[in-house]
Amino acid sequence: MNRFRSRFLFALITLIIAVLVGLGLLLGQIFNSYYLNTFKEELQREAHSILTIISREDLSNSQISELLSDLGKNYKSHITIIDEDNTILFDAGELTQDLDMNSLKNNVLPIMRGQTKGYYYSDQVHGLAYYGLPIKEKAAYEGIVLVSASVSSLTKVNQQMWGILVASLGIAFIIILLIGVRITAQFTRPIESAIKVSMELAKGNYKARTYEDHLDETGILSQSINILARNLQDMTRAQEMQQDRLQTLIENMGSGLILIDGRGYINLVNRAYKELFEVDSAKFLYQLYYDAFTHKEIIEIVEEIFMTEVKVRKQLHLPLKIERKHFEVYGAPIIGTNDEWKGIVLVFHDITELKKLEQMRKDFVANVSHELKTPITSIKGFSETLLDGALSDKQTAEYFLSIILKESDRLQSLIQDLLDLSKIEQQGFELSIQTCDLREILDDIIVMLESKAREKEVELSVSLPEGLTYIEGDIYRLKQIFINLISNALTYTPQGGSVHAKVDKYPDYAIVTVSDTGIGIKTEEIPRIFERFYRVDRARSRNSGGTGLGLAIVKHLVEAHKGQISVESEVGKGTTFTVKLNRKFDETS
Hints:
This protein has helices spanning 2-55, 61-75, 101-113, 152-203, 217-252, 271-277, 281-284, 289-292, 296-308, 352-387, 394-425, 438-456, 475-491, 538-543, 550-560; strands at residues 78-83, 88-93, 119-123, 128-137, 140-150, 256-261, 266-269, 312-320, 323-335, 341-350, 434-437, 459-463, 470-473, 498-505, 509-516, 564-570, 574-582. It is α+β, with helices and mostly antiparallel strands. 21% of the residues are buried.
């Protein structure tokens, strides 16, 4: 900014100096011409006065000589009268010592004699000025009146004139310079401020502002720059807000997203994709898609979009480390406003859970169909046998009818479990919460299942803490939970084994564990034991009359009580179910 002011001042000073120098030279020339003309006119008047005096016939020579001497003293000049033979007739006045008569005769007279009227001549060597006026009588040359004077007065006046002129112009220069500096500062300060703010705006600092002191053009410039800065700041703030929203949306969306530019380089990958595929963004970004992707199916989708420029939607089953996941991949080309190819966007929806739910639904339908088909087929077959004549044989008829009753009971139990499970899973399912004692519940269940334990020759025992173990819950549903767990333990425990139930009491919760020494569960099967109709040992569970829905009901009932259930098992050594129930039922949790 100082450079701008310096350049402006330099240009202004140069202009002022040029104008003042030109004006000084012009005035000096005018004054010099004026004083020179005045000097010439004085010499001319003196010469004509001398010619008039010497032309008068009424004056004697002594009177003429006296008049000419007085005239020379008054004009401070030297008067010389020379006849046609170059004889000096009269010589008197000032400059007697400085006047060189030989130079006058040899240099000045030859110039003067050739003139027909008055002539001015300046001798710069001797510092003298001459004015010659010829004396004529009827057009005949009779002599010359020569008036000479020193030019020192003219030089002195000229020097004084130049001194005054230089001093005046110098003072004028200083005054103009001061005024110019003030005016320059007044006009350049807003411009400098505007330049400074413009540089800050160019750097991205949209908070910079300039002063709006005046209402002239510079004030309008400052006001316009401030309006521009405010608009840029608002636009930047809006853009940053929109970019933050977009970035937040992209990073927090549940589906993986990848942006590929028109040259095939990956420009954007969001957090969901990095977590799903466990990739490092530093090694993944700005790589060619066929180098970055490890799955051939994804590369084929990208190439298809590049070649066809149409949207693609496909379902892929991709291996990820030790598991395989299902993805619905949506790819679309990015076309600019002028049909300019921008790139490709890929969205990966993880539908693994949906596929699992769909498979569970299919398994559920198949299992229900299978479970219903067996008793219905038995009932239908034995009924047809009875109708074909087996009724006449009383013993055979009773045997067939007992089988029909058994299968009917099994069918009824299956339907009842399905109804219970459906009711528990409904949105409006409510428990009948009341204060109950776990000791009493488990005592009743042990009494109910003792006969089954004796039949299988399995030891059934229970460990209860001292005192009452009150919790808030639904007595009927709690009994349903522990009956299913203990009954399953008895079912899968071979002869000579043992089943043990235990209650541990804590200030805020109680833990009930059901342990057996049965066949156990494989580690990979544990996550699926709470699925509908899933059986660890299908032959044994079906022969025991189980429906395969017991543990599914148990899980839903425990969760309805805001509790937790877990399983620990080892094949051939037994299984332990642990149920954690809160002492106080909290409906908000």
